[in-house]
Amino acid sequence: MTIKKIVLFLFTLLLISLLMGACQSKDEETGLPRWSFGVEGADIKVFSTFDTAKMKKVSMKVERIEDGTLVTDEVTGIPMKEILDFLGVSSYSSVTVISKTGSEENYLPDILEDPGTLLVDEVNGKSVWDETTETVQLISGKLPEARWIWHVKTLKVNP
């Protein structure tokens, strides 16, 4: 009778450990990405946080006007040149970046290949969020804030 209890106890422990392992949250690569956007004109059709795993993030300070006051933010992201290289884009006339709100901006190679043009996912150490999801922004230190794109939805590579 004691052996049956021990076997039953061990079986129960094994079952519980298997169930707990199955219920643990999976790492990000097996779930949904934190953010993503579509890509047109390249072999890769979607770019997401999964693609940035081995890319080097950089930080820089940018100035912008908020309520008539000059504000300095520290932004962190990945240089657009590195993203274009990842996408296999080597020859292009421009890239049109479209936001979730429908606004768009056309960027020439000299802007996109500048180290100060970043796909930003953190501002002042905090993730960039909209009402429902994390998002990314395209910021260029060479351009005024009016030409930055917030809430990137699509990156369109123009031949």
Structure explained in plain terms:
The protein has 159 residues and is an alpha+beta fold. The chain has a single domain, classed as Sulfite Oxidase, Chain A, domain 2 (Alpha-Beta Complex). The chain is 21% helix and 36% strand. A five-stranded mixed sheet has the order 2-1-10-5-6. Strands 3, 4, 7, 8 and 9 form a five-stranded antiparallel sheet that branches. The longest helix is centred in the first third of the chain and has 22 residues.
SSE topology:
Layout: H1 2-23, E1 36-40, E2 46-48, E3 58-66, E4 69-79, H2 80-86, E5 94-99, E6 104-107, H3 109-112, E7 117-123, E8 126-127, E9 137-140, E10 152-158
Parallel strand pairs: 1-10
Antiparallel strand pairs: 1-2, 3-4, 4-7, 5-6, 5-10, 7-8, 7-9
Query: What is the helix/strand order?
Result: HEEEEHEEHEEEE
CATH homologous superfamily label: Oxidoreductase, molybdopterin-binding domain
Backbone shape: elongated
> DSSP helix count?
3
- CATH architecture descriptor: Alpha-Beta Complex
At a glance:
The protein is built from 3 helices and 10 strands.
Structure characteristics:
10 strands; five-stranded mixed β-sheet; elongated; 3 helices; Sulfite Oxidase, Chain A, domain 2; five-stranded antiparallel β-sheet; 159 residues
